[in-house]
Please model this.
Amino acid sequence: MRALIAAGADVHARDGDGQTGLMVAACVGSRPVVEALLTARSAVAATDANGATALHEAAAHGNGEVITALVAAGAPIDAITATTAGSQTGLHMAAFQGHLPAVQALLAAGADRVVLDAAGATAAEAAETSLCPEVARVLRGGGGAEQQGS
Model:
């Protein structure tokens, strides 16, 4: 990636869905590529056609280390997707998928637990809907041995 950037690759280029390379790297959990793109000043708050950011992608796919790197670079932690995509934060996405490490990374970074999605649900309720009781317990502040940042 660094060689491509050095050769002049456009770090702001988008695919047909409006996704940037940073969003794709966040989705697949490639922290080295994410860091290279951030160093090259890829837009950390850019949104795709559904209003999702790289942080949403990292959260939805359970990539806690990438979340930490994105937040350190200024990613908007409580950004909300478009209504057509459920008006969700990254915390909602991580919770619904049952990605506890991603939930913990978001909470440690200060994510708001009480933001409501388009259905009127908090992230804890999203976790309960998808049968992820441990994630819901952490989001409600009930802890567990692995809870961090709340």
About this structure: The chain has one domain: 2-139. The two ends are 35 Å apart (CA to CA). The chain has nine helices and no strands. Confidence is low (pLDDT under 50) at residues 145-150.
